Amino acid sequence: MNLVIDIGNTLIKYAVFKNDSIVHDQSSESGLFLSKIKELFEQYPQINNAILSSVGKLDRKERDVVALFCKVHVLSSASKVPFKNSYATPHTLGVDRLALAAAAYHQNPRGNTLVIDAGTCITYDMVNNAGEYVGGAISPGIRMRYNAMHNQTAGLPLLQPGELLDFLGNSTESCMHSGVINGVAQEVDGVIGQYRSRFQDLTVILTGGDYHFFAKRLKNTIFANSKFLLEGLNCLLEYNTN
């Protein structure tokens, strides 16, 4: 059994894999890391290997805690990947994007795949039908856009993401929701269109914590998979331990 740990900007996600399938997953705040690790190994003593992925600087004590229970691989730009990485600055490529590319290659090794991750930032990552990661784009995420409107203006309130009833807002709040939610949906549709014009038979995967806010608003055909990053991390753990 494998343990996948994804340390994000706001939450830590944990997933236990058995034969490439998730048998358990949960999330917690960073302060609960030690207690969650103990619980997981009590519940799943068969875990033999773990992978740690952090979008920020990884605290050594987090690795050391997991290493008390099993072998640990810390994902980095030096980790082995099953695809060809053609990113011009591979040492600056986020480990989360590495994992998404690995999942794309694992799921569709002979096809063109675009992965859109709607998290703190919205990332676009492309793996082509030659098994080559060719890059993508990074855009402000939903909450970042709400925060920017509030922090950089004198009168706009700080809103939480909400469902959009109509793209035509008739109040300040509904106009802000339209600007963010509808704006992101239109942006994503436009980006998908650009990629479809260059890459034939494109498969599009939508994932990330905020994907549900606009998944149904997209005109393009997509596959939604909220666990795609975790699956990619498990692929990389297998690739670096076998």
Question: How does this model look, in words?
Answer:
- The chain is of the alpha/beta class and 242 residues long.
- 34% of the residues lie in helices and 26% in strands.
- It has a six-stranded mixed β-sheet with strand order 6-9-8-7-10-11, with helices on both faces.
- A hairpin with a 4-residue loop joins strand 8 (121-127) and strand 9 (132-140).
- Helix 3 packs across helix 6.
- It starts with a strand and ends with a helix.
Chart the SSEs and their pairings.
Blueprint: E1 2-7, E2 12-18, E3 21-28, H1 33-43, E4 49-54, H2 60-67, E5 71-74, E6 84-85, H3 95-107, E7 112-118, E8 121-127, E9 132-140, H4 142-151, H5 172-198, E10 202-207, E11 223-224, H6 228-241
Parallel strand pairs: 1-4, 4-5, 6-9, 7-10, 10-11
Antiparallel strand pairs: 1-2, 2-3, 7-8, 8-9
Helix pairs in contact: 3-6, 4-5
Order of helices and strands: EEEHEHEEHEEEHHEEH
Overall residue-averaged pLDDT value: 93
What is the number of strand segments? 11
Beta-strand fraction estimate:
25-35%
Strand order of the largest sheet: 6-9-8-7-10-11
Q: Estimate the global geometry from the Cα principal axes.
A: globular
How many helices? 6
Low-confidence stretches: none
- Largest sheet descriptor: 6 strands, mixed
* C-alpha-based Rg, rounded: 19 Å
Please bin the fraction of helical residues.
25-40%
Helix and strand composition category: alpha/beta
Question: What's the short story on this structure?
Answer:
By secondary structure, this protein is an alpha/beta fold. It has six helices and eleven strands. It is globular.
